[in-house]
Amino acid sequence: MNSIVNYKDRGNFGKNNYRGNTTGKILLDLHKIYKFNEISDYMSGSFTTKDVANHLKISSNCYDLNVGFDLIDNNIQERNEFIFWHPPYWDIIKYSGNVYGNQILKNDLSHIKDYYEFVKKLNFCLTKQFNTLEKGGRIAILMADVKKNKKLYSMLLDINKLGTTEQIIIKQQNNCMSDDKIYSNNNFIRIAHEYILILRKDNPLIIPFSITKTDFFDIRDSLKITWKDLVANVLENLNKKAYLNEIYNKIEGHKKCNSNKNWKEKIRQTLQENKIFYKIDRGLWGLK
């Protein structure tokens, strides 16, 4: 097995008409590597994992919200050797009330509108499953990126990494509904892959982890930014043209100017010495 996989034929595992159903062949390959004797899946969808386990003649514990198991509210009864987890890719496919059933279920992650709330619930589910792993146990998480409004939302980047990160596998996507969609322009990169993240539990009590923190900072409060870059960004914020007083007002009171008592003189010097700036009129400067 290589770190990049492609399965053009899904095989006869699960229901191919169940939207988002993955191929069972990835589980066959994972079994060859990790040789687990039992597998659990708490978001089974069309129960691909159960079909693969039956094919391999190993034990399985497979559940889903569509048959009444709620990973948010229900307890996990098993002590696990290997978990396969294929959560929804945010709201790309809405499951309850659409793929199955006539009503939206309370803890269906695919109906969460806010991405960061989705990630919060995703991490809750991850921790809950990881806690059930035995020493040396693994969870394999199949997930993807979502592109909306010129922004990439990456489940792989944003999900917590618990235990030992053992492997990332790139899986090529096939037979997506978006493959046949015609867009008005092609100035974007189509997403054509998924990820399988393998996390391993090496210590029952002490769990290393890494998390992604999302925040923002104001570059005017950075002491490391150069005056050239600061003034350029201020001018860009002012539509690439501004009087000196406008530039001063944008920077005054921030940490960068507090670090230099002659900051106004420094701004004028910066404008005069850097070729990315040009003088339009007296006291009026532009950014090329």
Automatic annotation (TrEMBL):
Q: Does the keyword Lyase apply?
A: no
Gene3D superfamilies documented for this protein: Vaccinia Virus protein VP39
Q: Which GO terms describe its biological process?
A: methylation
**Pfam families (alphabetical):** Forkhead
Domain named Fork-head is located at 225-282
The keyword Transcription belongs to this UniProt entry's keyword annotation: no
Q: Which GO terms describe its molecular function?
A: DNA-binding transcription factor activity; methyltransferase activity; sequence-specific DNA binding
InterPro entries cross-referenced by the UniProt entry: Fork_head_dom, SAM-dependent_MTases_sf, WH_DNA-bd_sf
Q: Which domain of life is it from?
A: Bacteria
Q: Which UniProt keywords apply?
A: DNA-binding, Methyltransferase, Transferase
What is this protein called in UniProt? DNA modification methylase
Species, as recorded: Clostridioides difficile (Peptoclostridium difficile)
